[in-house]
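stage 2 :: seqdesign
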């Protein structure tokens, strides 16, 4: 405001503001030596002088020592953003036998399917029924079916595997995957169907007895279509393991959730896992009860 002058109370004597920028005669209180310095953590307070509604002076000083500390703290609290919600990650640890049983239920489709699981062979060479498939997927499904007939017989369970291939082919058609793959050559779609089934039955992969190439001889597709087969498995079976990691003792298989796609050899292994897990669960229950 530059060189400011106000009338004093002694009859019109003009007095300049003191060196701290505050008129001592306004309230009879000596000016604070903190005025004009760097504001503290509470901020600043500004006092405005009005004469007949006109601003004639203003003074800014730190809140500390002004008597407005509480008001400043309340305003600061209102300005602060709400604290973020507290998120705590709770890790639920299952007993090994419980984890195994839950994994088995995912593999076969449900607890009821696990209870009634058997190792009866699938029908041998069950045919595809194109008339039951979505109209837009029939041509590709029939072309894939023809290529399945060109495959060399699998080293084991050949008739059961052909049935599982055709069942998965029909499932993929109803799920819309064949429509999505309509521009792929039939050989690649055939390879995807085969790879998905043999991976779901623990016949290929890490520690499995056979290589992928063993099952696609005569097809001309030597590279495993892992990306497409995994996509198909996720579509058919959902999340491969909802708890983040499958049991360490379980084979690394695709989870399809349908016993109709599992050959008798693999279902026999699943029965063994089931019985061992339930025996361990019963033994722990007896220990807890005792």
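stage 2 :: out
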């Amino acid at each position: 405001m530059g060189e400011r002058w106000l009338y004093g109370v002694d009859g019109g004597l003009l007095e300049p503001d003191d060196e701290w920028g505050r008129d001592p005669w306004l309230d009879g209180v000596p000016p604070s030596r903190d005025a004009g310095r760097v504001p503290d953590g509470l901020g600043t307070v500004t006092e405005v002088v009005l004469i007949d509604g006109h601003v004639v002076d203003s003074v800014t000083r730190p809140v500390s020592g002004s008597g407005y500390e509480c008001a400043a703290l309340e305003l600061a609290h209102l300005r602060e953003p709400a604290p973020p919600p507290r998120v705590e990650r709770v890790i639920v640890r299952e007993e090994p036998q419980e984890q195994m049983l839950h994994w088995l239920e995912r593999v076969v489709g449900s607890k009821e399917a696990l209870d009634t699981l058997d190792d009866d062979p699938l029908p041998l060479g069950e045919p595809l029924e194109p008339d039951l498939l979505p109209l837009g997927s029939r041509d590709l499904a029939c072309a894939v079916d023809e290529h399945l007939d060109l495959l060399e017989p699998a080293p084991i369970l050949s008739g059961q595997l052909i049935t599982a291939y055709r069942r998965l082919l029909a499932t993929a058609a109803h799920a819309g995957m064949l429509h999505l793959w309509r521009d792929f050559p039939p050989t690649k779609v055939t390879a995807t169907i085969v790879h998905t089934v043999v991976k779901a039955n623990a016949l290929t992969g890490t520690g499995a007895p056979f290589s992928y190439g063993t099952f696609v001889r005569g097809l001309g597709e030597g590279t495993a279509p892992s990306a497409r087969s995994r996509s198909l498995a996720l579509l058919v079976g959902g999340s491969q393991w909802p708890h983040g990691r499958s049991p360490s003792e379980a084979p690394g298989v695709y989870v399809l959730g349908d016993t109709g796609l599992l050959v008798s050899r693999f279902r026999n292994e699943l029965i063994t896992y089931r019985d061992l897990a339930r025996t361990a669960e019963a033994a722990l229950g007896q220990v807890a009860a005792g």
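stage 3 :: structure notes
- Confidence is low (pLDDT under 50) at residues 1-39.
- The beta strands are 5-7, 14-16, 44-51, 54-62.
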